[in-house]
Amino acid sequence: MRKKYLKVVVGGTFDRLHLGHKALLRKAFEVGEYIYVGLTSDEMIKEKPYAEKILPYELRLRDLLKFFEVNGYSNYRVIKIHTAIGFADRMKSLEAIVVSEETYKGALVVNRAREENGLKPLDIVVIGLIKSSLGPKISSSLIRAGLIDPFGRPLQWKRNSRKTFKGK
Question: How far apart are the C-alpha atoms of 151 and 158, rounded to whole Å?
């Protein structure tokens, strides 16, 4: 089956690779033949919540590469980005961008920058947020805060369940 797009871009920090990240990446591979992944540099993450707990670039890259390998993805390129737009405003051959509901506005910014550079805007593919049991979404911030695990489960629940199982 032919993919809808030849070249697709997706970007992010991809810290503590969780179900939301995986859904975003899977969608990119579902709709695109070749995926360009913009991975934020360490300098870009300094203002994020719990920035001091964000894994360094090399570890985030390692986790992405492991995810690609486990899922059999080979048609990708990871590029370090230093701005929110990264390289998406200059790469003429891109056809689509995959984002979540939360990052949709970022895709509009990318398209505005592409148009200013005389390039065709990208089709925007949007996925829904993956909910956590503590709120409307699984987020790296909640994971870094120690509130949920990468599957969206509260960590307090896990601690209580361990005590229960140890007692049996």
Answer: 12
CA distance 162 to 160: 5
Task: Note whether residue 167 is domain-resident.
Answer: no
In a domain, 152, yes or no: no
Is 151's pLDDT higher than 90?
A: no
pTM of the model: 0.83
Q: Is residue 146 part of a domain?
A: no
Which residue range is the domain that position 48 belongs to? 5-130
Handedness of CA 152, 154, 159, 164 (dihedral sign): negative
1-13, pLDDT tens digit by residue? 568 999 999 999 9
- Measuring CA to CA, which residue among 123, 101, 128 is closest to residue 4? 123
Number of domains in the chain: 1
Across the chain, how many H-helices and E-strands are there? 5, 5
Q: What is the rounded distance in angstroms from the CA atom of residue 11 to the CA atom of residue 165?
A: 40
CB 7 within 8 A of CB 125: no
Parallel, antiparallel, or unpaired for β 96-100 and 123-127? parallel
Output the domain CATH number for residue 54: 3.40.50.620
Asked if residue 42 belongs to a domain, the reply is yes
Compute the average pLDDT of residues 78-96: 97
